[in-house]
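Entry 0007
Protein: NagC family transcriptional regulator
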Amino acid sequence: MNGSRVGLDIGGTKIHGIAIGPDGDVLAEDRAATTLGPEGVVKSAAAVVASLRAALDGGEISSIGVGIPGIVDTRAGTVKHAVNLGLDGDAFPLAALLGERTGAVVTLENDTNSATLGAHAVEDVDDLVYLSLGTGLAAGLYLGGALRRGFHGAAGEVGHLPVDPEGPVCGCGQRGCLELVASGAALAAAWPTPTGHPAEALFAAAAAGDPAAVAVRDRFADGVAAAVRALALAVDPERVVIGGGVAAIGEPLREAIAAALTRQAESSPFLTSLELASRLRVVSAAPVAAIGAALITPSNRSRGPIEGGLAWK
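Output (structure tokens):
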């Protein structure tokens, strides 16, 4: 494929864009604030594309892939229920509108699925689960060399597994869902901080020996480990990659989840034999959602070939 591939990770506060060359080199990168609402999202996304094009000295852009939250129809190029972007009405034709602004073919994908494609490229394995610890809890499945979206596009919605029938009501309408314990929002509610990143504050306090912080951290890690265990028992992936906002913690997060998996397996030789802790990785540096979006091709709406692999380490 000639020209550069552009990938946009559109979130509620910022858009992260990258341009990848045919050989897998990351040629340009840009971030900009997201303007909410239908016109705002299109305008701010187009501005990031223009910035990347300028960094490429006007070089050809062969495709634009977009990872975006909400319910995405990849074939129609529409998104709906992206409430945090102000796109909470009918299906919004983002691909067509952004294509008109940029003069390029645009393909949409759910942001978790885009990040899963990026994690696959960075980890270079054909069988993995990507678990996103963001405001919510969701997983992407890349199995046997292909992205698994599910019949209704709901594959990997592990955050809505009910684990406590007496728990609070979730936004999905069920009671006691897993994401009420194991998500960035749940962590922030359990360890509120006036400034800064709640996860960083919690893990720092736990590392300093604060008993309350240790208890909150371990409860959170137990919840994430339960999600890892459910996904591993369902599809038995080679690797489980942890990403999302909480993944900025890095290695301490992996260690906490691995310790929880080990504790949960203590009474089960079967679980012990699966060695789930050894399959964990945390991606805290690579922008996997933007990378995955860039690797989406219009022809098959999945990762296209990159000769020699992706040059991001």
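Curator remark: Residues 129 and 231 are 8 Å apart (CA to CA). The two ends are 23 Å apart (CA to CA).
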